[in-house]
């Protein structure tokens, strides 16, 4: 219902009681005035008495009604004049008529103005009532626990203290031990909504004082906030409900601008016990996770170290066995012994480089970039893996699609990635028992900023359900696998601005592509 329709409704209700009485009285008065004016010899401005009719009618009539009644009175006055003085109209009676009409007009105007003022007051009152009702309904129905507290006495007390030149409430409270309790006693609860009663129980909802529920320190903060004229005070406080349950709540007090409104300050409390417990559990879980991931990183590094070292150590064993065989010959083949010994030295150096590299990874010092020729890197890596390739019966083709410029990189890192990819290819073809075992390593320079090394095998390719998890740490389909190889390779390349992708080749088998920047950005390097 709109405000204006409410106004008229209330007017109608009033009319139901006073309307008929005042209406009849006004009609009787008008008739009497007309009668005296027309049929008696009473001299004087009788028609002026129509003003009284208007005053009586104003008690019941609306604005339109007033105008109609005023017009009717004017008609009666003119009609009466015409009947009695129509033909012999003298100046005096004409002036009397004019005065009566003027009085009628002025009275009507004043009454209309009063009526307008009355209507607007009524509408303001209704708006106020409506706003109060709205506030009440929000206060009562909201699910946030709300209190109305009277802080007016406390505010006056604090302002009085401030007027004495005391600005720091803490020092004052220390010097006056009774001050805090006195202040607490000045606050009273005016009302508490349903949510407040549900949260604390009816007794605590009305009985609780902030001094009892918040620490002395926070209470002093609250007093200081009032002295400083702050608008909001917020804090986490612990309170005890009727049933003895301790709750952690977010307390919020908003102080009004108008000092007179301090008798109804709204205080809200939101129960954050569950949320805090959840946050605590989350923090604990995060701490545990951090511990676990630290352990996993150490585990992963050792796994990666073991994985990387396996290859050179295996090669050293094989070469030492070969070397012994050459020595056992009669006469010993010293040239072959030398070749085996040289291979053993080369593999030992690689093992030592791997250990050195892992150590620098752990100490977070980054390795130095050097210009690496990818073609040479591929050749050297294949030579290093000679034994493994032979053992598995794998043939390697090197395809130099386009000349590739040297790229700034850490050679051992690229080599580790390449060894991982070739080892994975060998294992995939081994596991599938592939009859034809071919690995093709392609180097090319697709654009000015990038170079690429692709390792393609003739194995079974990457299974559909593996594709998504391929680079996830600890994902493996091998009985003895760690699942760290591809994840470490990818992060190694990404740390330098490069990337690693894996997919299936349309002609069969899997293809892994290392993309490197020809000019690694400074931040990556
Ligand atoms: P791991 O070798 O210890 O399993 P990786 O991260 O190197 O760990 O590899 C993860 C998984 O990716 C492998 O278990 C395998 O299922 C799949 N994969 C890797 N390389 C190939 C490949 N060339 N062909 C088919 N699947 C592969």
TrEMBL record:
Q: What class of enzyme is it?
A: transferase
Q: Kindly state which keywords UniProt assigns to this record, in alphabetical order.
A: ATP-binding, Kinase, Membrane, Nucleotide-binding, Phosphoprotein, Transferase, Transmembrane, Transmembrane helix, Two-component regulatory system
Organism annotation: Ferirhizobium litorale
From what superkingdom does this record's organism come? Bacteria
Recorded GO MF terms: ATP binding; phosphorelay sensor kinase activity
- Catalytic function, reaction form: ATP + protein L-histidine = ADP + protein N-phospho-L-histidine
Q: Which Gene3D superfamilies match?
A: 1.10.287.130, Histidine kinase-like ATPase, C-terminal domain (3.30.565.10), PAS domain (3.30.450.20)
The residue ranges crossing the membrane are 16-36, 65-82, 94-112
Domain Histidine kinase, chain residue ranges per copy? 304-520
Q: Which Pfam families match?
A: HATPase_c, HisKA
Listed EC numbers: 2.7.13.3
What is the name of this protein?
Answer: histidine kinase
